[in-house]
Design a protein that fits this description.
By secondary structure, this protein is mostly helical. It has helices at residues 48-63, 70-75, 83-93, 98-102, 110-122, 134-148, 154-172, 176-183, 192-205, 215-218, 230-236, 240-243, 249-259, 268-278, 280-300, 305-328. The chain has two domains: 9-216, TorD-like (Orthogonal Bundle), CATH 1.10.3480.10; 223-328, no CATH class. 57% of the residues lie in helices and 0% in strands. Helix 1 packs antiparallel against helix 6, helix 8 packs antiparallel against helix 9 (192-205) and helix 15 (280-300) packs antiparallel against helix 16 (305-328).
Length: 329
């Protein structure tokens, strides 16, 4: 019998009835303070407490630059990273916010952030300013797991586990695997991206699989079409939910070097526009190859099959459009 999909976050009943468990205080900043380093490292930690500590630590590393995060990195067996490398990845090139990857504009805030904030409110929690940041989401996942383990009633435990399922499938599995694939080449993500993906897979395996697409993907804007204006097509390349892939400043610089055009400093969409003005066919062809590559990356992922298939199809559709436009350039 096919399990029923978890309700939307707004439909969640109060998971904290009288006598039930409560979450710890929502942190105002996700630093390493309060993140234990005495549990087992890696993904082989044997107890539930180890699982929650691992999630908290993995999230804290994205929000806390070295050297403040050194002890956590060492406890997880991760190589040291510099503050510059941390800033390049988690602040400049790939800020780990769900709204950037799931929002229709590919930017912080907006509809993508509102969806995540709705889950916090459904749990009777005030959403922090960075509610959609991966550090916040992994912290909340850990807190829900810990609270479920201390419930006095089966009903309260079921509600907390349901909330974790919504968080994992709707707000993490919907975008985090692709983010981790994009982050993997960066020095600051050495080891961290693999460890985070393994932890996500383990947590998903411990919940009931959701047989429907996450709402953000179901409601996503239309894919890039061949009849859109050239400027709109290039801007869509910086919106993951429209293009189906992640395009970093590092990727844009690599594209310029490969096709032999100058790359304008600043926002990616302006850099792409400048590249297209120099050599439109080569720029569109490179972007098409990038989209094809990402379609394969998504198709090879098994973390959340429905979401991965959606992303693979979206990237393939973008590649087809770009190939057509390149042929007409």
């Amino acid at each position: 019998m096919t399990p029923a999909a978890p309700a939307a976050a707004a439909d969640l009943a109060d998971p904290f009835p009288a006598g039930g468990a409560r979450l710890g205080a929502v942190p105002t900043a996700h630093g390493v303070e309060g993140t234990g380093t005495g549990t087992g490292t890696g993904t082989d930690a044997g107890t539930d407490a180890d699982r929650w500590e691992l999630l908290r630590a993995l999230g804290a590393l994205t929000a806390t630059p070295p050297p403040a995060s050194r002890l956590v990195s060492e406890a997880l067996g991760l190589p040291p990273s510099s503050a510059a490398d941390h800033t390049r990845l988690f602040v400049l090139d790939l800020p780990p916010h769900a709204s950037i990857h799931l929002g229709p504009e590919g930017k912080l805030g907006g509809e993508g952030a509102d969806r995540v904030a709705g889950l916090w409110r459904a749990l009777s929690l005030d959403p922090p300013a960075d509610a959609d940041h991966v550090a916040s989401l992994l912290w909340l996942c850990a807190e829900l797991g810990a609270a479920a383990g201390t419930c006095r009633t089966a009903a309260a435990q079921r509600r907390l586990e349901h909330a974790r399922s919504v968080l994992l499938w709707e707000h993490l599995a919907s975008w985090l695997p692709g983010y981790l694939a994009a982050a993997a080449p960066y020095r600051a993500a050495a080891g961290w991206s693999d460890l985070t993906l393994a932890a996500l897979r383990r947590e998903l395996a411990a919940t009931v699989a959701v047989p429907v697409l996450p709402a953000a993907l179901r409601d996503a804007p239309a894919p890039v079409g061949p009849h859109e204006r050239a400027g709109d097509v290039l801007e869509a390349m910086t919106v993951p939910v429209r293009s189906g892939f992640v395009l970093t400043a590092r990727d844009v610089a690599q594209a310029g070097a490969e096709i032999g055009v100058g790359v304008r400093a600043g926002e990616r969409r302006f850099a792409l526009q400048a590249m297209a003005e120099q050599d439109p066919r080569a720029t569109l062809t490179w972007l098409a190859r990038h989209a094809r590559h990402w379609s394969g990356v998504h198709a090879a992922q098994s973390t959340a099959p429905l979401a991965s298939e959606w992303w693979a199809q979206r990237a393939a559709a973008t590649a087809a459009t770009l190939e057509r436009l390149a042929g007409d350039a």
